[in-house]
Design brief:
Strand content of chain A: 15-25%
Distance between the termini of chain A: 18 Å
Radius of gyration of chain A: 19 Å
Radius of gyration of chain B: 19 Å
CATH superfamily of the largest domain in chain A: ATPase, nucleotide binding domain
CATH class of the largest domain in chain B: Alpha Beta
Number of strands of chain A: 10
Number of strands of chain B: 11
Number of helices of chain A: 8
CATH class of the largest domain in chain A: Alpha Beta
Strand order of the largest sheet of chain A: 3-2-1-4-5
Shape of chain A: globular
Structural class of chain A: alpha/beta
Shape of chain B: globular
Helix content of chain B: 25-40%
Largest sheet of chain A: 5 strands, mixed
Largest sheet of chain B: 6 strands, mixed
Oligomer: heterodimer
Number of domains of chain A: 2
Strand content of chain B: 15-25%
Chain lengths: 270, 295
């Protein structure tokens, strides 16, 4: 029996199919779609259809589709939905069982979840009012520097000078970056300044939820692919041993699929 | 629309320069100047014997000293003055510490209150300054002296920069936003996001959902007005009420603020962006008077 988790975020739609195997639940396939200008409801339907055909799974094999993510209510093909907090906690416990703190940095959302060994969220904090600290912060600054996100991260790794960033707001930080460019500041140092500021915001949230940082933490979301961000976060006070999973963008979708499977199982037992 | 060939130009607002031809700086006892280097715009004002003589307003460039030099030079050139003709120059604004030729620097809070007192008269008690990267509410007395103030400089919501982002996003010149925000069939609710980054996503969603651009602008102006009004209410609005800064030129925001507060704001013939520099020039006049008396 297969269950699908579909995570509809502001930049991308992620799908994970999990299957009941002899050893328990296992990931069968993953799929991602960037909707661009597409209507998100249409994009979600398309992502699901594409996901099935790309992975060779027959729709009839899929017992449950569980939606999560900021736009989870827009998924027509979903049987049910779970919050991003629940799916992140569950998915993180699967990919990194030792971590009690889950740090998620998405395009527009930052979230820190404290979870138990079974992947149940005990507490969380999220940036519902302000985009500062989210991935789009890095994205706008990379755009201002005319660098791809990958080159942006690589540039920051080469920096040797620490420049503190004053602005907290993404919009203001963009002006600050422009001023730094005008002042002929090396691109590497600007990139590092941006990434350090971002990590500082995320770490502050982690401290609020995770406490002193004595517990293991796992970082999920696309920023895992940015080595400078990971370095800065690891060096921040309040962040304990930071684990990096494989396929960090899919952890939310995975969590939704796992929750679907577990609910299904408990229904059968009932 | 030829000036809008480039995509980046939607945010562009009008730079302005004005000289009072009836006055003559050559016969004045004291010529004082104020320069306000803001994060988005810079202004220079010259006063002769404590009266407004001329101003220039332009976009702030990459470096504060260069912007200061450029804005004052433009004004001096218009009036045939050299920088040596200025007896006293006061710098203010976010970039004030980087004006090498200023005799003194003062905070923009004090300067705005003083400038507003001149522009709108001594009855002004509540001043809202909507700047490029901050928003201040100032309570002042009949001499333009600051009694209390509140400021948001952490977040682009409710600032000129936030408005520029929306202009770029919708590809509508920033100067048209106010008028367009009233060209709608029915007033929409405010966009729900405070953050400009989130509002950007929300605006795209509204367009997809069938909102006209004008209606999105209306929803955004309303959100900005609500945000600013919550700041004003923390100090309380005592009349007269006056709005300065670039957004004072956006009727879409101004009228919605007035509607929410139930209070009309004072309108003047002056460019609303010069208050800080004007206040600085007026302080310069007072300081020069003191200096002359002492010597």
């Amino acid at each position: 029996m297969i269950h699908c988790g579909i995570d509809v975020g502001s930049r991308s739609i992620k799908l994970v199919f999990v299957e009941e195997a002899a050893t328990g639940l296992a990931v069968r396939a993953r799929h991602i779609l960037f909707p661009g200008e597409l209507d998100l409801a249409d994009a979600a339907t398309q992502a699901y259809t594409d996901g099935l055909s790309a992975t060779g799974i027959d729709a009839a094999q899929v017992a449950t589709v569980m939606a999560t993510g900021a736009f989870r209510k827009l998924v027509d093909c979903a049987d049910d939905d779970v919050t991003e907090v629940s799916s992140a906690a569950r998915g993180a416990a699967f990919v990194c069982p030792v971590a009690r703190t889950v740090i998620e940095v998405g395009a527009e959302e930052v979230r820190v979840v404290k979870n138990d060994a079974a992947g149940h969220a005990l507490d969380f904090s999220a940036n519902d009012k302000c985009a500062s600290g989210a991935g789009s912060f890095a994205e706008s600054m990379a755009r201002a520097l005319q660098l791809s996100l990958a080159d942006f991260g690589a540039a920051a790794m080469r920096s040797t000078t620490v420049i503190p960033m004053n602005a907290r707001c993404t919009v203001f930080a963009e002006s600050e970056v422009v001023s730094l460019i005008h002042a002929a500041t090396p691109v590497e140092d600007i990139a590092r300044s941006v990434i350090d500021a971002l990590a500082g915001r995320v770490a502050a949230m982690a401290r609020r939820i995770g406490g002193d940082g004595a517990t293991d933490a796992v970082l999920i979301g696309g920023m895992v692919n940015n080595p400078a961000f990971v370095r800065a976060l690891r060096e921040s006070p309040g962040v304990g041993c930071l684990h990096l999973p494989e396929f960090p963008e899919y952890v939310g979708a995975l969590g939704a699929a796992l929750i679907a499977a577990e609910r299904n199982r408990s229904h059968e037992h009932a | 629309m030829s000036m809008l060939e480039n995509d980046k130009d939607y945010w562009r607002w009008q730079e302005s320069c004005w000289i009072d031809e009836r006055r003559d700086w050559r016969t004045a006892r004291i010529v004082s100047a104020g320069i306000d280097i803001g994060s988005v715009s810079s202004q220079a004002v010259v006063c002769v014997d404590g009266e407004l003589y001329g101003y220039h307003s332009m976009r702030t460039g990459g470096s504060s000293p260069d912007s200061a030099r450029k804005v004052i030079d433009a004004l001096l050139a218009r009036s045939g003055m050299a920088i040596e003709n200025l007896h006293y120059l006061v710098g203010t604004g976010y970039g004030r510490i980087n004006i090498p030729f200023a005799h003194k620097t003062l905070t923009e809070i004090a300067c705005h209150a003083r400038g507003a007192n001149y522009m709108a008269g001594p009855s002004v008690r509540t001043l809202l300054d909507m700047g490029g990267q901050d928003c201040k509410v100032i309570r002042c007395d009949e001499r333009g002296k600051v009694e209390r103030f509140l400021m948001n400089d952490k977040c682009a919501a409710g600032t000129g920069r936030g408005m520029e982002v929306i202009a770029d996003l919708l590809k509508i010149p920033v100067v048209e936003l106010g008028e367009r925000s009233f060209a709608i069939d029915a007033e929409p609710p405010a966009v729900s996001s405070i953050c400009v980054v989130f509002a950007r996503s929300e605006a795209l969603g509204l367009i997809k959902a069938g909102y006209t651009k004008n209606k999105v602008i209306a929803a955004y102006c309303q959100a900005m007005a609500e945000r600013v009004v919550s700041l004003i209410k923390r100090i309380g609005v005592e009349q007269e009420f006056f709005i300065t800064g670039g957004i004072a030129k956006n009727s879409g925001v101004v009228k919605r603020i007035e509607r929410l507060l139930g209070v009309e704001s004072i309108h003047t013939k002056y460019d609303s962006q010069i208050a800080g520099a004007l206040g600085a020039a007026l302080f310069g006049h007072t300081l020069m008077q003191k200096q002359t008396k002492e010597s």
